[in-house]
Amino acid sequence: MSAISSQTQTALLLPSVGASFELQQIPIPQAGSGEILVKNYAAGLNPIDYKTQEVGFHVVREFPAILGFEGAGIVSAVGAGVTHLKEGDRIAYQGVASNKGRSFQQWVVTPADWAFKLPDSMSFDTAAALPIAFLAAVIGTYQPPPHGLGIATPWSASGRSAHAGSPIVVLGGTSNVGQYAIQLARLAGFGTIITTASPRNSPLLQALGATHVLDRSLSIEALTGEVEKITGEKKVLHVFDAVGIAETQQAALAIVSEGGKVLTTNPPQVKASEGSGKQILFVMGALMMPQHQAFGKEFLSVWASLFESGDIKASTVEVVSGGLNGVETALKQLKTISGKKLVVRPFETDV
Fold this sequence. Notes:
10 helices
């Protein structure tokens, strides 16, 4: 149980775009109808945090702003109408479009319908690193166009053999989204899973399910040639671009066969040639978005079993020391690392 002994909490606020973060004492929010109050034991760090700090993000409309778009903790109170969760439940959540729902603070209010109820074996640190990267991979893989690649889910009838023998390419395999995309491709039965990464990360990605790891430094022409050597006459109808910059989007369109689909994690900066039948799609990985809600309810009923069974392995997590005091430095570190997630523990903040 998570009793509240104070009416205030420690939070990390961004006064304005381009400013440095500041620790402040603010009121603990209250759960409204359909919401839960969460004692926030861990918060995940993501590129969107430093991008918001540096140049802004359209979802963050109020300043001073609390950032942090994923976290995990214990339900401390439930609002009216919440029946499927109770005080003491362990959950993870995605940060929503208001200060009270973001994770760089000690207490968070979030919609109950989109909370991930955690398996007993999963730590808060691991869980806090899931909602952004894992959901981007899940939605981008399973939702039909224009929101995803439309690949069969592993919990559907024949879903694990629907793509048997087919090739798929995942650009940016060492990224957290890429690691999950590789594993989801393996669960879908793809016979050839090609990814790009630094050669030193090949063992990690092969353990997750990649059959071929190509050097990420290859030119688009060289990369396309290597993919063609591997796939032969088989069409590449699915490419997951987990990097999402203009160069990788161009590479993805060069690799994908006519009539195929490219899924990218950032808005497309390039277009498919007219008449090619190729599609370039953009994933917005939030279950609470109207276009994802029906799928989200189905997914939340099965997601934990994917980890409990060992079908999916969570990304490596590194806990940043200092609680919320460590966020500013950690966001700089985030720009230079790959293959793991950074999390902070808000209740370890010294004030």
